[in-house]
Amino acid sequence: MSNRELIVLGTSSAVPTRARNHNGYFLRWDDQGFLFDPGEGTQRQMRLAGVSAHDVTTICVTHFHGDHCLGLPGVIQRIARDGVPHEVRALYPASGEDYWLRLRHATAFADTSKVTPHPVEGEVTTLRSAGLTLTARPLSHPVDAYGYRLDEPSGRRMIPAELARYGISGAQVGELQREGRLGAVTLEQVSEPRRGQSMAFVMDTRLCDGVHALAEGVDLLVIESTFLTPEAALAHEYGHLTAAQAGQVAAEAGVRKLVLTHFSERYGHDDERRFAEEAAKAYAGDIVVARDLMRVPVPKRRNPATGPSRP
User: Fold this and answer.
1) Closest CA to 57 of 101, 24, 90
2) All residues at 6 or more sequence positions from 50 whose CB lies less than 8 Å from its CB, including other chains
3) Where are the beta strands (DSSP E) in the chain?
4) Which residues pair with 185 in a beta bridge?
5) Is 262 annotated among the ligand-binding residues?
6) Contact 186, 180 (CB under 8 A)
7) What pLDDT shows up at residue 194?
8) 3-class state of residue 43 by DSSP
9) Which of this chain's residues are annotated to bind Zn(2+) 1 (predicted)?
């Protein structure tokens, strides 16, 4: 059974609050785990959320402001301490190599060779692994910042009734999938298109081409909405988005589910309704205003008969 969900570890921006930890997001995607922007306190939040160091297969850092990376030393030391046996890829802006090395070796501990660096630079960086494509694109922030997108390739779903009609079962199904036909029966006769699922992670940025390219058509968009519209000028000055802009991006990109997060400490839980209302002025789809330790499932696959639909 598919197990795909976002576990929110922290939702605050530069300053944590009593209710919101610094950034941190764990995407569980079947047997892979993507840890995005581990801010200060992420190791503790992982324990509270039931996320193990063994669950992490990839770490993605958008940029080297503290609320997006100060949790790295603890997470990496936990990977080492717990003896994680598999490779853990770490993606981060190449221009921040010095910061990566400082965080990677922040204290004395029994190290691990399992964490492998993958610095990203240029307009598009792509990594492929286990049937998934992970893409990084530049954003617009005072320091080099990248957003990330995860894509599953499209495929075909077998139709049990059609398999039964042609008397195909057991090992024959696998042969048909591999070869594209079994005798006179083609794969297209007993299957239907299955659209691959996707998600995008967009943090600290002004509106730019990278934001729109990352968000285009994704099932799940996790995006910063640091400010509300009255602070739009401040948002632009510091390289951030408002909730209204996040909603506009989601609407134009045909996003299926929108997760708003990375809130300025000036806002409390009583303001959550305002964030949702601002985003909803442009976006009519499913809006989630993130809270720490919340779990957000990746939307179920679209019905292939109806195809892609924009909210």
Assistant:
1) 90
2) none
3) 4-10, 24-29, 32-36, 58-60, 88-93, 115-120, 125-129, 132-138, 146-151, 155-158, 181-182, 185-186, 191-194, 198-202, 220-224, 257-261, 286-289, 295-297
4) 182
5) yes
6) yes
7) 87
8) helix
9) 63, 65, 141, 204
Percent share of the chain, pLDDT over 90: 92
pTM equals 0.91
Query: Helices then strands (H, E): number in the chain?
Result: 9, 18
**pLDDT at residue number 308:** 44
Q: Is 68 annotated as a binding residue?
A: yes
Q: Which two tokens stand for residue 185?
A: 């029966």
Annotated binding residue 209: no
Q: Domain extents for the chain?
A: 4-154+195-297, 156-192
Which residues does the chain have with pLDDT short of 70?
1-2, 303-311
Using DSSP's 3-state secondary structure scheme, residue 309 falls into: coil
Structure-block tokens of residue 143: 């320091």
Is 67 annotated to bind a ligand? Reply is yes
Check if 67 is active-site.
yes
- The CA–CA distances, whole Å, from 150 to 116, 178, 202, 209, 296 equal 19, 25, 12, 17, 16
164 — phi, psi (to 5°)? -65, -35
| Rounded CA separation 188/192 (Å) | 7
Question: For the domain 4-154+195-297, what is the CATH superfamily, name and number?
Answer: Ribonuclease Z/Hydroxyacylglutathione hydrolase-like (3.60.15.10)
pLDDT tens across 19-52, in order? 999 999 999 999 999 999 999 999 999 999 999 9
Largest CA-CA distance found in the chain, in angstroms, rounded = 67
Catalytic residue selected from 37, 55, 67, 292:
67
